[in-house]
């Protein structure tokens, strides 16, 4: 049977390209991303990458959107268990998960966030991504306290990624406690 006109030959190709980009980001970071590398990882022609994304920058922006969506969903689920009394414990547990089992995605997120230091589009995404936690916390504490806790959690998490050994859950709770 002949293919219908104007139907995509490979409707999942764009998504496979994005998944390949995220896989390459996990393996080698932002510098590992090129149209050729992504095409090889996605097992598509190089022209498919440029068909769906007009530049590596636009591919990275889309990857950043994907990472933000993953984080937003995770934070939504996480915030359902949150109460004012359990904030430090829950933040510590979240950080511990993100620096252990979630480490590859956490590193990608920070690497993409840092592109916002020099690029306005990435900066907008970085602000969006980092403000999600503040908004979730603000349902339980004042906006100023939510911002402080989110900034503290972000700093503790980033610092923890650089340490030679992973801080324990108790150490993280202590770092976040009043």
The H/E string reads HHHHHHHHH
The share of residues in extended strands comes to: under 5%
CATH topology of the largest domain: Tetracycline Repressor, domain 2
Give the biggest sheet: none
- What Rg do the Cα atoms give? 19 Å
Topology:
Layout: H1 13-28, H2 35-42, H3 46-52, H4 56-79, H5 87-99, H6 103-114, H7 120-137, H8 143-162, H9 169-176
Helix pairs in contact: 1-2, 1-4, 1-6, 2-3, 4-6, 4-7, 5-8, 5-9, 7-8
Characterization of this structure:
The protein has 178 residues and is mainly alpha-helical. The protein folds into two domains: 11-54, Arc Repressor Mutant, subunit A, CATH 1.10.10.60; 57-176, Tetracycline Repressor, domain 2. The chain contains nine helices and no strands. It has helices spanning 13-28, 35-42, 46-52, 56-79, 87-99, 103-114, 120-137, 143-162, 169-176. It is elongated, with a radius of gyration of 19 Å. The mean pLDDT is 91.
Q: Quick recap of the structure?
A:
By secondary structure, the protein is mainly alpha-helical.
Keywords for this structure?
178 residues, mainly alpha, Arc Repressor Mutant, subunit A, Tetracycline Repressor, domain 2, 71% helix
